[in-house]
Amino acid sequence: MSFPYRVPLPDANNLSLGRESMTRIASVLAGSDNLTTGIQDVQYLANIDIPDIENVRPLLDHSGLSRYETNKALVEELGESFVRMIDREFWNVEKFNEFINIASQFMFMKEIRKAVLAACVKYHDRISSEMYDWLVNDPNIVDEAPMSIKRELFARDKSLFRLYVTPIFEEYLKDQSLYFLSREMRGTNINDVLDFRMNNKGLQDIIDMIGENNILFDEMQNLIRIWFNDNGWPRICSFRFDFFMGMQKADRIQMCKRDHSFNFIWYVNSGIRKGFDSNRINELISMYNKAKKTASRDIIELAMVFQDPLVVSVFSARIIDILRKYVDKSSERIPLRLVTNIMQMITKEKEISTLKWCTTMLHFGSNAFRMIFSKNYNLPDLDEKEFYEGFYRHILLMMVDDRQREAKENNRVRKDKTQDVIDTQEIPSTPTWISFSETETHLLGRSDVARKVFCQYIVERTDKGDPVAVHRCLPFIYASLPRSDNDFMHLEMYESMYQSIVTIIIKSHRVRVLCSERWRSVITDLINITPWRLSIQELVVKLFIEFYSDEVANQLTTLGCVERMKLVREWAERMCITGVNMKTGDVKALRHKYLLMIFRSTQVVSGIYSIRPDVCPVLWEIAFQGNKDVNLNAKDARALLEMYL
Question: Which PANTHER family match (predicted)?
Fold first, then answer.
């Protein structure tokens, strides 16, 4: 192995390791009387006549190293030594150019490429455009180059940048932890979620890749537009939001300010973290009005902010809180008169109200994909009469009923504290003055804003432990399901709502669900929706699995009703009958979760209420692929299930 460059030794007569030495060595050997004296002459000339070298050779014989391994190690060490020499010495321009010219002939050798890259990093100001063009055409160089060199290569070849950044972006979209966290509509620490998103490794890799290169920054914005135009996924809006906040954290604020949407994103981020005071709201309104007036493509990047699922959750929750405060502050007890008074207040304050601003921003975000896809940058007006006098009025009427029922519930619990958990009451009939009906169902089917607010109301009621309101509302969701998977915003909103309901029940209401007739109505609603999508079936199975815990069993034992654990297997069997189409591939996808549920059922209360083939024949057949002879007990459950997983 030899190198195409020459490393001068202290004595100019000594031989180097380069190719010129090969000719000199050949001439020395040819001019010697015999091979032995010739080798001695070369050793003397090259200054490698090392004393006692013979004593080392027996060690080499017993080292177990092959000649290949030894030579490979020598070559690698020579390469590293040369890289260290480059770092240590100073080369003038002439020497740098001479080295690059010679090395360019041997770029197929990894050791040469490492040396070239080391020289380019140290003398980056000497790299000409022609040299960058030469480097960018070598795929090995692009892969092996440090980021400082990669960045310059990407700036000269945007297609290369796209090739490297796209897989990282796709991994961001596939990140399940980010995806499921973004779909939680309540019960999370907003600041922690934003920090978790911003610290995503893929996002940070892209930020590092861009560095302070304005060309790459601009190209990144162009790629985000292309990706969003191709499918319109809300997760892309999350990525853009997190990208700018990550760039700010990396002290690239001046770069961020080159983009017209940065201040808008900054104010929204600040408001989510610290609260939307009048200053933040006024700044956002001013930027929004300016963008709406110009009706240019720039409006899309602002609208994308309000299609980020986290931002949607914050603003829809704000709308619910505002409407509920109207109800809670009123001393009026007659429902229709109370709501009429509130509607008059809303109409009077509408133009300056936070309610209108939040509603407008949700409407703004809902049109982001439509605007970029159609290239029509005029924002359609929201039908305020339909929303304020119709939809919000119906929400207020339901909230009035919520308040009345909560007052009765508090009185009931005060008389008997065990009633906080054990509840034998059934769902009461809906008051006649609540007229949420077919008109509102049609609105849910066609209005993204209505869906976001209504789903947030249902999740809020779940969080507050109000199964009556949840049970009344879920049929309207069922009646307004999206007609196809192409309606992705509709689809993701409803999936987010169901995920949030399940998460809240697992976190706060598992024992209540098992002890309450009214909560069981909600479970029935969840079971009935499982045929709609595999993702919903998986959520419901996840819920059932979480019932099988020592914490739940211990609380039920304390209450004297541990036998209610058997309800879980009854629900699971009913879900399998209702929600699984035996002719589709869904069964295989769910088997793992069914097996886990069976296993968990054997580990609680000594497996007394475990899932067995005699009580859950359909579930058992799905889980064990029709093998009805499987004998499962708490002792051998783990080994048997591992065999089937």
Answer: NEGATIVE ELONGATION FACTOR B, NEGATIVE ELONGATION FACTOR COMPLEX MEMBER B
Q: Distance between the two ends of the chain, CA-based, in angstroms? A: 53
Buried-state track 364-402, b at ≥16 Cβ within 10 A, e below 16: bbbbbbebbeeeebebeebeeeebbebbbbbbbbbbbbb
Whole-number Cα distances in Å, 409 to 226, 414, 511:
53, 9, 18
**What is the structure's pLDDT at 252?**
94
- Matching residue, tokens 């541990």: 562
Count structural domains, the chain. 2
133 and 264 in a single domain? The answer is: no
Q: Could you tell me if 439 and 578 are in contact, meaning their C-beta atoms sit under 8 angstroms apart? A: no
CA 456 – CA 449 distance, rounded (Å): 11
69 and 78 Cβ atoms separated by less than 8 Å: no
613 assigned to some structural domain: no
- CA 446 to chain centroid, in Å, comes to 27
Residue 81: CB atoms within 10 A of its CB come to 11
Burial of residue 50, with CB atoms counted within 10 A of its CB: 0-12 exposed, 13-18 middle, 19 or more buried:
exposed
Q: What does the pLDDT read at residue 8? A: 35
- In the DSSP assignment, the letter for residue 306 is T
> What is the CA 117 to chain-centroid distance, rounded?
35
Contact 439/390 with Cβ under 8 angstroms? yes
User: How many angstroms separate the CA atoms of 105 and 549, rounded?
Assistant: 68
226 and 283 part of one domain: yes
Tokens of 513: 């669900």
Q: Which of 273, 288, 312 is the last residue of a domain?
A: 312
Q: What is the pLDDT of residue 443?
A: 94
Helices 214-231 and 147-156, packing angle to 10 deg: 70
The low-confidence residues of the chain, meaning pLDDT below 50, are 1-15, 634, 644-645
Q: Report, in angstroms and rounded to the nearest whole number, the Rg of the chain calculated over CA atoms.
A: 35
Q: What pLDDT does residue 1 have?
A: 34
Spacing of C-alpha 56 from chain mean position: 59
Buried-state track 1-20, b at ≥16 Cβ within 10 A, e below 16: eebebeeeeeeeeebbbeee
Residue that the structure tokens 């996808």 belong to: 589
Note the pLDDT tens digit of each residue in 99-126. 888 777 777 777 778 888 888 888 888 8
98 and 168 both lie in a single domain: no
Kindly report the backbone phi and psi dihedral angles of residue 423, in degrees, each rounded to the nearest multiple of 5, phi listed first. Answer: -140, 115
pLDDT at 311: 96
pTM: 0.83
Encoded tokens for 552: 């739940």
Q: Which of 232, 220, 211, 213 is nearest to 168 (CA)?
A: 220
CB contact at 8 A, 423 and 519: yes
Q: Domain boundary at 146, 181, 199, which?
A: 146
Per-residue pLDDT at 313: 96
In this predicted structure, what is the pLDDT of residue 13?
45
Residue 334 DSSP label: S
DSSP string, 224-286: HHHHHHHH--HHHHHHHHHHHHHHHHTT-HHHHTTSTTHHHHHHHHHHHHH---HHHHHHHHH
Identify whether 227 is part of a domain: yes
pLDDT score of 82: 75
Which pair of structure tokens corresponds to residue 133?
A: 């063009």
Domain residue limits at 190: 158-312
